[in-house]
Design goal:
The protein is built from eleven helices and 19 strands. It is of the alpha/beta class. It has a seven-stranded mixed beta sheet with strand order 7-6-15-16-17-14-18. A five-stranded parallel beta sheet has the order 9-2-1-13-19, covered by helices on one side. Helix 1 crosses helix 11 and helix 5 packs antiparallel against helix 6. It is globular and about 65 Å long.
């Protein structure tokens, strides 16, 4: 049986594995973290469920619409319902785009990470958690992977790389393969640039008042220290009754300038900024949580033509490096990669361990 390795169990990698579930193919995903879904992450604390990364997802593309609404279970899928409003650098709040707000903002009752869990459960792949692929070798029989201790992880007919482009470039540069191909892939991946983001959850034992009937606020002129502020209690069954939990995601420049600070050092500034924006005293949260995202969203994408040079050798790249940083785009990217992999494997020789 042919073998496929996917590095990264984010939405793109899981979608690729799910789309190949009916093939005579042994698929293994390697994930260095202890959780699925990448930045479509969810956490639980103090009786609350919250999403510190991606806040919701859309089904605006054909593949995402079909998979999410017709192929995967929908019993826990809900539309947030309330709109996203906008604000500027001066903190002036106004209604958001009515067309954008008319589209459903999908989440799952038990966390956005359920999307990844559903893709994993619906596929036939083996998922190896807390396994970091440190390098790979191009051999006569395929791609031989090894972890950070040098442990052999197997030989595979094809290999899919899904981490953010800088991490994928580092992996390519650390690996033994055709030198020209390595140089082309590295240069193409290094074209992508990312912005960092500090995401903070602020929990209150009381409802936090809002100046208008919105679910979230997004900064549109990039002149405010906060880029996003949302009320997690608008997601059904997430927060204990009578409480509020805010997700505050800081702007890229602010995040970079404060990236190495701990939560206790960040809280006074973040609660003051969020309180000023909402017109409420947020200085004393019941508890708080910090999630730093080094590679939150791409500013520029990788060179798709250069990255595709690996496909004739069975080396594929998918994910936000090529698609952008939205959940439905990552899903679409994984589905498209599955089609390319299927075509490649029809003619590829099988590997030998």
């Amino acid at each position: 049986m042919r073998r496929l390795a996917i590095v990264g169990a984010g939405i793109a990698g899981l979608a690729a594995a799910w789309a190949l579930r009916s093939e005579a193919l042994e698929v293994t995903l390697f994930e260095q973290r202890a959780e699925l879904s990448g930045r479509a992450a969810s956490r639980r604390a103090h009786g609350a469920i919250y999403d510190p990364g991606a806040q919701y997802f859309k089904t605006a593309t054909p593949g995402a619409h079909e998979v999410v609404l017709h192929q995967l279970p929908t019993d826990e899928l809900v539309d947030i319902g309330r709109p996203v409003w906008v604000f500027d650098g001066a903190g002036t709040i106004r209604p958001g785009d009515p067309t954008e707000n008319a589209a459903p903002k999908w989440v799952y009752r038990d966390g956005i990470s359920r999307l990844g869990r559903l893709l994993a459960a619906g596929g036939q792949a083996t998922v190896r958690m807390e396994t970091r692929v440190a390098h790979f070798d191009q051999t006569l029989w395929g791609w031989q992977l090894a972890d950070s201790t040098g442990l052999d992880l197997g030989v595979f007919d094809a290999l899919v790389l899904t981490p953010p482009a800088p991490q994928t470039a580092e992996l390519v540069e650390a690996s033994r393969m055709d030198a020209t191909l390595r140089e082309v892939l590295s240069a193409g991946l290094r074209r992508a640039t990312y912005r960092s983001l500090l995401s903070v959850a602020l929990a209150y034992s009381r409802p936090v008042a809002r100046p208008a009937d919105f679910y979230a606020l997004v900064n549109t002129d990039r002149e405010h220290p906060i880029s996003w502020l949302a009320f997690e209690e608008d997601k059904p069954d997430r927060i204990p009754p009578g409480q509020s939990l805010l997700i505050v995601q800081m702007a890229p420049e602010w995040s970079v300038a404060h990236y190495n600070l701990g939560l206790d050092d960040l809280l006074p500034s973040i609660t003051a900024l969020a309180g000023e924006l909402l017109g409420s005293d947020l200085s004393a949260p019941a508890w708080a949580d910090l999630q730093p995202w080094r590679y939150a969203l791409p500013n520029t994408l990788a060179d798709a033509a250069a990255v595709a040079q690996g496909q004739p050798a069975g080396l594929f790249v998918t994910g936000d490096a090529l698609a952008g940083g939205r959940v439905h785009l990552a899903l679409e990217s994984g589905l498209a990669a599955a089609t390319e992999i299927r075509e490649y494997l029809m003619a590829a020789p099988e590997s030998e361990d």
